User: What shape does this take?
Amino acid sequence: MRSVASCLVCLFLLIRSATAQEVRGLLRSADGPVEFASVVLFGLDSIRSPAGSALTDSLGAFTIRTAARGVHLLEIRCLGHGPYRDTLVLRTGINDLGIIELLTDTTALNEAEVTAMRKLLRRSEEGIVMEASDNLTQVGGSAADLLRNMPGVQVDPEGGITVRGRAPQVRIDGRISALSGMDRVADLERIPASSVQRIEIITDPSARYDADSDGGIINITLKRGAGRGTSGAVGLGIGQGANLRLNGSALIEHGGSRWKMGAGADAWYTIRTREVNGDRTQYDVPEAYYLTQRRSDDRLVTSQLARAHADRDLGAKGRLGFGLIWNGTGQDNEETVRNTYRDADSLVTRSNERFSNEVRRFNTVEFTADRQRPGRTAGRNTLIAFSTAFADDQERTDIRSTETDATGMALGSPVLERTRNLQRSNLSSLAIDHTRPLKDGLRLVTGYKGMLRLLEADITTETEANGTFSEVPGRVDLFTFTEHIHALYTQFDGGRGPDTAARWNWQIGLRMEQVWNTTTSELLQTNRGNDYFNLFPSAKIKRTHGDASTSALSYGRRINRPGLGQLNPFIDITDSLNQYGGNPALVPELVDAIELAHDRSVRKGDLGLRAFYRRARNSIQTFTVLDSNGVAFSRPENFGAMHTAGGELLLAFPVTRFCNVNLSASLYQQWLDDPLLENELLAWYGKAIVAIVPWKSAKLQVAANYTAPVLLPQGKVEAVYFVDAGFTQSFANGRGRIGITGQDLFRTMVTRRQLSSEDFTFTRSFRVDSRAVLFSLGWTFGGEFKEQVMENRFKND
Assistant: This one.
């Protein structure tokens, strides 16, 4: 603590020597953020000498740093928009202009035809941004599908998301939301891509963000109108994989002088198939030395998503906003598993067939409210945000097991079982964030974040005898989990140097978190409390060079708390020979992360380089043990330290005026340092996206992904690779759009796992019907959603 305080004092004294002011703002129009706009600050002398200038980024944000003071003229120009001029008085420190609305100039748009292609990926102040409408290869997919082409992100066929081998924290519109799942393990399959406007990835979050973000942060921004008047869109889709897929969506927005309101709805229907093949050698089970499993699933998925919002512009007093989201998802899964046992001489000793019918219904409703209030001086701002969500998750499974002979004929009467896992949960949060400019360009950010997470699970397993079902001893439980997190944070931002030459920027912060959580289990007769306090320092220094390239070094301490699914002791016996359950005794991982970054422009393109290192203590990994009956039981356990060290490359460049190429790759070494279990692996991934404009109003995109083997405590996940393609054609002056997408063109997306121990070796492959052809049709009205909402119409599971 003494060293941290010394750094803060030295930093403050250094910043006081700087004399630059900052002018900040956000440009918006009826079509959303305005990028690449020219923003110039002029003095009011006779020659109108410029005092500073900037270009807006992909989010419409700009920052001008200048030593000038007093009355100046701000002038903004951008193709397709009318000019904007305003006078302002520059004060010492940060001059925050807030949101500036630009009017669309239809005359200028009719006179000019832009043939240059927009970049698929763009950089913001904190990370990488991708507009959903630019990702043609995932037309009609889910939010998880959109992430498949983001640098540094891996998405497996089951929807699991990792960044550099770790699970990230997922936010919706900047907040932790039940829309992505009540658990810490995000389920983005519930969010249709048609609802997403943009995705941002932050690999080095500062102290302002929750410490539970060791895998970085993925922020998903949902579509919302920004202009005045009424506008909207409708879309329909149909596709064919192994079965029919249907999708539909609608959006409507209305903006007035004070109020902005909107609503949206998405629905989809599909039947997915899945094949799972397992082969296990069991050294200590002579009569079942070889186990062969062949599993097939037919899963009916239906989902509905509805949302509404209302925002009130309070003028000089800020803004007030409300939101309501509902999601209902249903899954009916029929699964058949055939097991064949052989002895060491490969002779069949017995076989059986297990059929299960799993019915799951999930409903969640979330309410949000936020209040933004500017201060009396420029740059001061207070934001208060509240959200609460309630979810009901019911899963019931009927199971029928039948012994069979070598030919597959049934022997005797089947054994009937049924399981029930009923969960009710609540997630509530309150955040207060205050920004205050200090002297000489220094900015102070302070805040509080409180979060409450509740779960109650009613778990029952029953078996049938003589026509009556009775509870199975040891398989009935009432499990509850309660968690309170209270955090305070302080962060200083500053910079030194003129805007037109080399410049230093820095950021240093400290987050303090107190956690109280309790897990209770009637079955285990336990009542565990885990109260702990942690400090999470963060620091970042950034150098802007004379050629506009940047270099940055950052450090952050974070935490990875177990998810509710990892804590819930419910045992899934759908596959009786491969069972999974949670572990209420898990403790969080503590993580230290360092990143070195360099970005520069190269021949009209962009080059990004990253080097990173992460050390996670109390590493949480899934561990499998085999009992004497040949049942493999898996659950998460805490191990020693997991180390990850590697580098990352992002390269985007135009081949011609009509063709862009985006390349990204990452190479990292992982090793597990534990006295009882050690393992290491060199992992890497590569992605290539080629975007082409074959003719006016048409777009073609091809994306290839490759993920090398990934480390597991007892083995590895083998390589996964696939190719997607997408094409869209707009018509009626951009109001309408048709699209076609081919996903997993060569049917190569399959997950294979290899596990081994002293007792067994196990290989397992998992394949869903990921290859599909999808068609979409959409129409917009009012102009607000043109080029935004017609791109993604399908749900890819």
Notes: The first helix runs from residue 2 to 15. The helical segments are 2-15, 106-111, 143-146, 564-567.
